[in-house]
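For the sake of transparency, this paper describes our internal protein records without simplification. The remainder of this section carries one protein's record, kept here as part of the documentation:
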Amino acid sequence: MITSASVPGRLSRWRRDSSRFRWIERWGISTCSLCLGILTLLLFRRGLNFFPYILGSALLVWVAVVVCADWRVYPSGGVGRILAFVLEYTVQTLLHGVFLFLLPIYYASATFWAPTGGYVVLLAGAALLTTIDPWYRAVSRRIDSLELMLFGFGWFSCLNLALALLDMNTTWALLLSSVGTFVALLPVLCRFRADHRRGALIVAAVGLLGGPWLLRQAIPPVPIHLLGATFAQSVVRLEPVRPVQEISAAELSEWGKLWAWTEVVSPVAVSDSVHHVWLKDGQEVASLPMKSIVSQPGGFRVFSWKTGFGSDPIGYWSVEVRTSADRLIGRATLRVIR
């Protein structure tokens, strides 16, 4: 027999259980994504040998987004709704793993307080957004094409790295990644309504085929990165002698020659070339010839020197290491004081 006194107690327990279920529904996927993200970082620490698994994850996302698009938009009955739910969270979790694996690789190749730093911020934002499930659901409700944009961003970033790891010139890797991303999104774009399809195709073609090239200086030249950079009095046996970050104009005049020493690193052989660009207070004053880095895995040194500093050398000097397509790898900085 149920007494009136026992009803409030049962209602209270039911509310507590319901709140637990709501918490699991709201934060359970986020917790799972975080655990998978930690596993992804552990894989990254084992080296780029595990990158094919991440590329495979991106391919699974493509299957879920493109091939299974109709199942997710038009779920029929209970089974269809469950399948749509599973696919939706699968896409989110896989995207999270892809962004989290790519983040430290692009971070290593980026130069902060430069346009390439913004690309890393976008990767970090995408990784964070796909981790926190309530945030992801809230943003996706406001932006219908969020999932498509995240997939395009992740797929482009994966291809850009994958092609470079195949010993392709980083410029060609950038261009072919743009084409590959457009082709991957084409089946989805063709499913748009007839009155929106043409506009969507034009925007995607212009944005994906032309955008990365126009914004190439904001995309880190993975997997190349700068391990060390400094100015010095000279370079002996490929090592800097008397490295400095600040020097007086009188001492600089006494030296007569200033060297810029940089150590560029790539985990695999990369087909490209690099050159030094000297700047004073942000204005280019010299550009040194290119050095080929074809088939040179590991680290190598690139150095240059300058003898004339003008009548007023006081200010901030820097030397930027750039690829053949003028993409920034890193920089050395020096302050000249009175």
